[in-house]
Amino acid sequence: MSTDKYLIEAINQAKKSLRGEGIPIGSVLVRDGKIIGRGHNQRVQKSDPTAHAEIDCLRNAGRVGSYKDTILYSTLMPCYYCAGAVVQFGIKKVVVGEAETFRGAEMFMKEHGVQVVNLQSDECKQIMREFIKNHPTLWNEDIGK
Q1: Catalytic: which of 9, 54, 100, 111?
Q2: Is the pTM of this model over 0.90?
């Protein structure tokens, strides 16, 4: 299990989504060592194709002024949609649990000056592998295949 307390909270958010029969991706937004937003993928639960974990997290954080001093944690490498929000709001650092099951938009974020840290969490990989194995159609819908 990861020892990063913010990734642990993102994993808890992913598990919350899974308990709601959703896609197990979670996210937290951190400023000055405090979590100011939490979210999880709710595409299934809300029947909303835009309800990705990172977007849900940003919505739940609300208006925070500048995002330049925040760090976004996600259990999975953000897709281009979520990476676009990272770039748009000027988030300078994104920490991910893993990018093995989904490569996402790492290079896009890096090309826009975002520091991307991949913790390569075995727990995050296991959660996603199991979900993809058990729900391939839903997963392919989520990633636009």
Answers
A1: 54
A2: yes
